[in-house]
UniProtKB/TrEMBL annotation:
Record InterPro entries: Aromatic_CoA_ox/epox, Benzoyl_CoA_Oase_BoxB, Ferritin-like_SF, RNR-like
A GO MF label: oxidoreductase activity
Biological source species: Ideonella livida
Gene it is expressed from: boxB
Protein name stated in the entry: Benzoyl-CoA 2,3-epoxidase subunit BoxB
Keyword Protein transport attributed: no
E.C. numbers: 1.14.13.208
Gene Ontology terms: cellular component: cytosol
Xref: Gene3D superfamilies: Ribonucleotide Reductase, subunit A
Amino acid sequence: MSQDDTLIEATEAVVAENFVEVSYDDAIPNNVNLSSDRQLLRALEGWHPGYIDWWKDMGPEGFQEADVYLRTAVGVDPAGWAKFGYVKMPDYRWGILLAPAVPGRTIPHGRHKGEPAWQEVPGEYRSLLKRLIVIQADTEPASVEQQRWLGATAPSLYDLRNLFQVNVEEGRHLWAMVYLLVKYFGKDGREEAQALLERRSGHQDNPRILGAFNEKTPDWLSFFMFTYFTDRDGKMQLAALAESGFDPLSRSCRFMLTEEAHHLFVGETGVGRTVQATVEAMVKAGITDPYDTAAIRRLGVVDLPLLQRKANFHMSVTRDLFGSEISSNAAESFNAGLKGRYHEAQLQDDHQLQDATYPVQRVVQGELVWEDVPALRAINSRLLDDYIADCQGGLDRWNKVIEKAGLHFRFSQPHKGFNRRIGEFAGHRITPAGEVVGEETWAALKDEFLPNAEDIAFIQSLMRPCHQPGQYASWIAPPRMGINQQPVDYEYVKIA
Ligand SMILES: [Fe+2]
Ligand SMILES: [Fe+2]
């Protein structure tokens, strides 16, 4: 059966079973009734070839012709929104899918709280809203670019497939944001959509907007850490934008969150399986000291302290993505009703925060102190705190794996101010334990906190492809289950 047949069948099945109206009649699968808006459809069809060129240039290197066992979003019903099948990535059906409208939805927060949610762009906030959408949009292609070289060193076909799944879905997230830009922002929106295809992660003259998205993702440990920690920033940002009073943005982000969950799963299980392989090898070799690095590395697995350093790096650069802890821009986005807090509706306050305060940690005269600041100005700080709390679950589960093996080592999150370049802690040297130190001490200890040259060389030495079905690299345990109930030795990618 051709891919199109599979998709048509899938669409019919989904429409029949779940009554979700997804149109695959147009070149662009959608549930936003694109065919009724010829002008918008033409604008998107005009953008499509540039997108495909970008995907071919900057998407997964060397695997564009491979048949990949992918999940395609074919609807938004939680009971059956995806279809699995082999697809060549450039033929993936990137769709525009919005979560269902909530009838009578009102603006959840800020000065317009309680007014009907906007179905069109509120003129007074046009440029602020556009900026929020562009910043979110820019992260989506950026991560695809960062990860484009990883296929060559995949530790298994299962992992290779997961990488590509994440990549095509980040591509779809770009579509989701471009739809908003093109539909609601006219000529400016079309220009922004074009610029999204032109910026490049790490490019000297035309880089991606946010720092962490210009870092390299040079190896698979970085990929798993990225999908656990940095995609989780994505989750938090999407959750905050899902609270937007601009309803199309809210609905778009709500559906993106369902896909994001898989990216977080890839990260958490990727690191977890790495930990699993390490502790199994240590136990088998009778090594009990997690700091017996040389002996552990000889087993072809990653020592736990190195994983901690790697996590430290990814946590700190990702925390920078939340922006300055104290921010008048964030206050205005909240006040204007454009971007809420995490789980806004569940919070027990007035959702306007005119008189509320929020405790923010800062460095004053070389000391860490807590200060109550107006809650409105501390919106970013609060989202960062929620993010840090949300990160902890994975660390706890990784620690369980170590504990079960009878070994003594615990992963922990470094202090919020560790290795920061943006916000309150920028310009200060703070250890993972939360000690403010001088430049000299930092220089002496840095290699214990962050991946050092030896670590990086060792990780590189492990990055050898395992491209046979059922084969897994020494440093990572096979998953407990395959994708979509397929076995773990399934041929998830048919390499052309
Ligand atoms: Fe995304
Ligand atoms: Fe993601």
